[in-house]
């Protein structure tokens, strides 16, 4: 007599960058999925991405999108891993053929944080001395802070969070701007000196959420990762990503967003700034949360009518020269 033995559920291979933040995020995903699917096996496979290797070039000058995602995407296409966990804000708005954004997890606080050198512990952004050196690699943070606080100066900073904080503490900078979410996830929330309000600086598209990318048509994997989807975060991020997708050109651009959901309505605010912080275009749109992408695209077109395209063209030209 033969007994029918069902084949064991296939092992699911999770791809991750090797940075400390990436690993914390990936192990969190693994743990949540293991709880939801106790009979399955989840393995973590780590890979270095281009962005982990090129540390001496200003991020804004590297026009290449997907700096932190390309190797993981190749891993999925070559069937070495089944899905990849990203900080959603590092995931390009256009994905390679055959891959999709399969899940967006619940967002942490998406705001940016001011982290100061010890000697400025009594100061805030507004009261830092003239010429204080703020470390940031983000054109979005640079442009918005310049607009509100023209007395500050800005210097590029690269490397993982620990490296950046060490440079701050060594006196290379007076303060840094970092994401609240990243500091919290690494247990460094005590370094947050001031959460920067959205009136001063809008956050990056997707900031504070994790995005899980997988192969299109892999229904088994898609079904597994969907267990971690947080619908309100997903709707907000789909609107934010559509806004960015419709506006961005070849390089990093100063674009910030804010989203809110009230009942069935989603409000998206989007901002495009010139690098000197002199020109700011800020527009809002409200509509059904179920039509998130349409809202994002419409808002982008609204911003273009207000002159966003000219700002972006000028930045692209400056970056190329
Ligand atoms: N580009 C770096 C990056 N990508 C994601 C985060 C952490 C916060 C997040 O999940 O949005 C950070 C660090 C930072 O911006 O300070």
User: CATH homologous superfamily of the largest domain?
Assistant: Periplasmic binding protein-like II
Cα separation of the termini: 77 Å
Query: What is the CA-based Rg, rounded?
Result: 20 Å
* CATH domain topology of the largest domain: D-Maltodextrin-Binding Protein, domain 2
- Name the helix and strand elements from N-terminus to C-terminus, one letter apiece: EHEHHEEEEHEHEHEEHHEEEHH
Q: Helix/strand/pairing class, anyone?
A: alpha/beta
Q: What's the count of strands? A: 13
What is the helix tally? Answer: 10
Query: What integer is the average pLDDT?
Result: 93
Q: Per the principal axes of the C-alpha atoms, what is the gross shape? A: globular
Taken as a percent bin, the fraction of beta residues is 15-25%
Q: Major sheet, described briefly?
A: 5 strands, mixed
Count of spatially separate domains? 3
Family: Belongs to the HMBS family.
Organism: Trichocoleus desertorum GB2-A4
Domain Porphobilinogen deaminase N-terminal: 12-222
Enzyme class: transferase
